[in-house]
Amino acid sequence: MSELVIKNLHVQIENKPILKGLNLTLPQGEVHAIMGPNGTGKSTLANTLMGHPSYQVTEGDILFDGKSLLNLSPAERSHLGIFLAFQYPVSIPGVTVANFLRTAVNAHRKAANPDDKGIPILEFRKIMKEKMEMLKVDSAFAGRYLNEGFSGGEKKRAEVLQMAMLQPSIAILDETDSGLDIDALRIVSEGVNTLRNKELGVLVITHYQRILNYIQPDIVHVMMDGRIVESGGPDLALDLEEHGYTWVREKLENGT
Ligand code: ADP
Ligand code: MG
Ligand code: MG
């Protein structure tokens, strides 16, 4: 059983503190949601977990299976089984979804075994077909150029498919604060629900309560001012939907 443990994490961007002592434990097999108002540091957390070089960790640690990730590159983190879906996936001209996925799968195989010669094409096609059927992705999708002219929903579909192919231990999904339509939300949710199993831990980071109408998280965390300030079961999301974040802020300010 692997777990991701974030301990007293302090992160700054250009000398401006953003994360201020964030603690969170995500075990394999659980789905956790992080919710919080805009500008509170949710994407900073996702970027820091990924190992983005602009985000400077000044204190605390990120452990996976008890081992610190802080000195590992984004690729090394990915090879360990941590999957990060990007808020704004880039488009790669001339690279199809299938080629992109095959490259990703081969990079993981190579990291696990330097002598690996890459997945045989027929085996790759077979696995990709199975995953696409499982996720109800149209077969033509594999031949599309990655992110070129993709709708928000199609970008999410590519991400979820990538997740299915790489079979990570921990997946971190950061949702955009704007422009994420209901279709994209549904695709991410159905994908996560389909892939959900005891070997996968998922962290869904979102500005919106409504994604939690589709994904039933085991734990909901509320993030404010660079910290997790409240954690609870799915009921917490309903409270937030009904009453917004004001009560959490008031509770914080009153020190209760
Ligand atoms: P959220 O995802 O919760 O909306 P962000 O992590 O995007 O919050 O942003 C948290 C704070 O960090 C904001 O004040 C934002 O302006 C600042 N910030 C985020 N990214 C950068 C960056 N690359 N450079 C400077 N400031 C940034
Ligand atoms: Mg934001
Ligand atoms: Mg964000």
Q: What is the spatial order of strands in the main beta sheet?
A: 6-7-8-3-9-10
Shape: globular
Largest sheet features: 6 strands, mixed
Number of strands: 10
Contiguous low-pLDDT stretches (5 residues minimum) are none
The CATH superfamily is identified as P-loop containing nucleotide triphosphate hydrolases
What ligands are attached or bound here? adenosine-5'-diphosphate, magnesium ion
By CATH, the architecture is named 3-Layer(aba) Sandwich
Please tell me the overall pLDDT: 89
Q: How many helical elements?
A: 8
Class per helix and strand makeup: alpha/beta
Radius of gyration: 18 Å
Percentage beta strand: 25-35%
What's the number of structural domains? 1
In short:
This protein has 256 residues and is of the alpha/beta class.
Please supply descriptive tags for the structure shown above.
256 residues, alpha/beta, Rossmann fold, six-stranded mixed beta sheet, four-stranded antiparallel beta sheet, 8 helices, 36% helix, globular, binds adenosine-5'-diphosphate, binds magnesium ion
Give an overview in words:
The structure is a single chain. This protein has 256 residues and is α/β, with parallel strands linked by helices. The protein has a single domain, classed as P-loop containing nucleotide triphosphate hydrolases (Rossmann fold, 3-Layer(aba) Sandwich), CATH 3.40.50. The chain contains eight helices and ten strands. Helix 3 (97-112) packs parallel to helix 5. The radius of gyration is 18 Å and the shape is globular. The model has no long low-confidence stretch (mean pLDDT 89). Bound molecules: adenosine-5'-diphosphate (ADP) and magnesium ion (2 copies). Adenosine-5'-diphosphate (ADP) binds at residues 13-14, 18, 36, 38-44, 54, 177.
